[in-house]
Amino acid sequence: MKRSITLAAVLAAVLGSGSAWATQPPSAKMLSLNCASCHGYEGVSVGPATPSIAGMSEEYFIMTMLDYKDGRRPATVMDRIAAGYTEQEIEIMASYFASLQYRPAPQPFDEVKARRGAEVHEQSCSRCHSENATVAEDDSMILAGQWKPYLAFSIEDFNAHDRAQPRRMRRGMVELSDEDVEALLHFYASQQHHERFMGQ
Amino acid sequence: MATLNRRNFLKLVGAAGMAAGLPLAAHGGSHGNAAKARVVVVGGGSGGATAARYVKKLDPAIEVTLIEPNPTYHTCYFSNLVIGGLLPLDRIRHGYDGLRRYGVNVVHDMIVGIDPVSRKVRGESGRDFEYDRLVLSPGIDFKWNAIEGYDEAASRIMPHAWKAGDQTVLLRKQLEAMPDGGVMVLVAPANPFRCPPGPYERASLIANYFKGHKPRSKLLVIDTKDSFSKQGLFQQTWDMYYPGTLEWVRAADTNGGIRRVDTGTMTLFGEFHRFKADMANVIPPQMAGRIAIDSGLADDSGWCPVNRRTFESTIADDVHIIGDAAMATTMPKSGYSASSQAKVAALAVVDILNGREPGTPSYANTCYSFGAPEHAFSVTGVYRLEEGVIEQVAGGVSPLDVPQEFRRREVAYAHSWYNNLTHEMFG
Q1: Which residue range is the domain that position B175 belongs to?
Q2: By Cβ atoms counted within 10 A, which residue in A108, A164, B51, B108 is the most buried?
């Protein structure tokens, strides 16, 4: 019984419209290739600023794209781009990028600042951005090994109150000096060899 | 294997005759090497390099051959930064070793004939290349003498610099040699042409160079149009940075722009106007790359009609045409568009060769322009197929009237865009 209903539904969908095949959403591969030209081959950006999006959690990817699409997050270009995709397409892309291996950016950093930044991170950030901010399941960007200019832009937006953030993140960030923030960026930039990034 | 009959080649056959007379024969699909399908990609620019890489990646069992006459490729995008003295030429130069490492067979030859009946292309070297699917990414060629007196020889005196490389260097050298107080004329073409914002980015970065090094010099942009890409953003930039240095003259003010040039006297003529220049950059009207025209794959417009779902030529079977040469509805002729179309075509080629129905396409374009070294802005578009045409569903240009920090961020993202786009193509 159940099977016959399903079959009928499929037949109706196929026969009902001559262009039923054309209304299928594009494949995950097709959609994600649109992102690669700026965010890098397989979501790993060669920089210097555009973030890598490989390995991002599905939930964070979807939230980010919907925030851009609906104008809730400041952007230079992503608001204009996100508006072009349906929620279904965004979910397809999210699942695809979540399956890819994140790779940290090979970028210079200052070791003294990075050591100081490790302390700042431990004190102010580590309760949510766990394991040195390497965990996608924390439902934020993976901060470790992310391109420094992108992280700096994000912090500027948070501090300018242009970008929404959890209240306790706000409380933590107001206590950071410019030097603390600078040190944090160098700490995240220094996280290029974490075991989580060595997969595949 | 029978030797190819030269008469089968479409070289130098009139386009109109071709369109009517091309035999659309079905093929048995059999070829000597039964296990592998063969894809030949002609043209190693943004479209061709991307297509070759992705066909190989999506189905490593397919034999992919990329045929390109030059050992290196200079991107047209970012070449204005070289002309403006902001980047060295080698920053926009790319080789083909990356594609070779991915398993693409790269051959340096110039394709001079296409035979879609026996599915072969012929190189200038005399060598034939057989294919099951051909991807043609021939870029543009110029309509010499469409502006009277502007032919290939004239382009060595008044460079076009609209194909990057030697012409880029020539224009840069002329700028360096021009005396302070000189007048330069830049001729911008009518639509459609490669890189719609390109002439205005170039004008901006030349004006920036004048301002820093030859402050008494002037740049006159004589346009063949009354409006242009990212116009509001460019004009805002020009008011901010280049008043008195850069002047844009719309087509209506010269009755349609420059019609004739005389390289001997360095004079450019409108219908009623004449401009005496110390140097000139003439960007002439354009058409699909020569091989597409000579093979009858373009229509009367000079561009190649394609099925937008797969980028298969509507004139010849088993041939996909991508990039500047293809008629892709509203997608601008840009390196990013070429790359996007290459991905759509690569997925379609692999689906077809594996006996699958090609999936739903999705297209995108993003292009950055520099108005000044620390001042960039973008245009973007997301496109989908609607009843056979490519419809833009979202996008647009950067907002006017934003803090300078916004423009500086777009500079950083412009460099990332360039690096990731070319890294994806060339490794």
Answers
A1: 143-284
A2: B51
